[in-house]
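Message: Study each token:
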Amino acid sequence: MEDKNIYSNSGRMDYGDGFSDDDAPIYPQQDSSRTPMQPGGGHGQPNVRTGKRKKSKGKTVFMVILIIVLVILVTVGIFLILVLGRVHYTGDRIDHSIAENAGVTLRDTGTTNIMLFGEDNHKDGEHGRSDSMILLSIDKKSGQLKQTSFMRDIFVSIPGYDDNKLNAAYAFGGAKLACETLELNFGIRIDNYLIVDFNSFTDIVDSLGGIDLELTYNEITYINWQSYRNHQTEDENELKADEYTYYLDRDGYEVALVHVNGRQALWYARDRDSAGSDFDRTQRQRIVINTIFNKLRSTNPFTLMGTVYSAAGYLTTNMDPISLTGKGFELLGALSYEKKEHRLPSDDNYYNDYYDYCGSVLVISDNELERERLYSFIENKQD
């Protein structure tokens, strides 16, 4: 028997397993007009399945992102509805004609001006005292958030009443009359106001976990004394004034960095006995507001939402819900702005006087000069 040469050139391939080319099944001959086989394809057909998979995957990612965005928007919308439902709305409109009819030109500063009143001892149907009156000016052009404090004892002209202290205007006619009084005396147009119950300070600060303030020894003992005498604590020495490390601040005062809760921060903001007078108290109020703003800027979104929700129940405004939402987001955006401060009256432009019917007052020497200084501060035109 002759051996089979598996390496012969006979044109037939023997695969060594009992089969040869003659035994192989016959397949139809490939049509040379068809597209050549592509990697991953079959029999010359283009691989369209891969493209479908890519499109399908991209569509899935898009749908997931869309759903997440919609969930966030719905959540924010529900949160805003809840927050806005807690605010008290007055529907007041400031009567700008009062100042204009008196010959006062109301100057539009081109910034967002919101008058902030801090109120306590409020009763239904009555206006409480406004010990804090601060004009918040949001200056987008220069990226600045400006605070102007108005001393409550400034002797002013009050529409419909005899001349009196500025806080008397608030007592007579609330925030509306106080804004009209400010326009009449200082020539700055004010459209919006916010009244903040002083109790909100405690809740806001507590919701943030407290704040750190630079306090003098006397300020610490004042906070302790007020908390104890008002039966808010049983510890006469709640803040251990003797245990802090003191250093000189930029104004040359010996201070210590003290972590305070909401109640303690409120007593600090209202302190006019431990040092100075009402002038020092207005500065303390601005310090507390700036400290709260700075902490809000660095807090996480959930804490921020809790703080906003808590504060909303203590707010009263003449804005409608839509306007309040817009101004609220504008203010949140301004938390990172540079902070600047001003106070009326200026140190060199007032004198003390006394009237039997209203007591000690601060009389502005040159009202027109004070108007120009206020306008220049808000418009960033100071030298």
Q: What stands out?
A: Residues 1-21 have pLDDT under 50 and may be disordered. The domain at 90-210+315-378 is CATH 3.40.630.190 (Aminopeptidase). The chain has ten helices and 14 strands. The two ends are 119 Å apart (CA to CA).
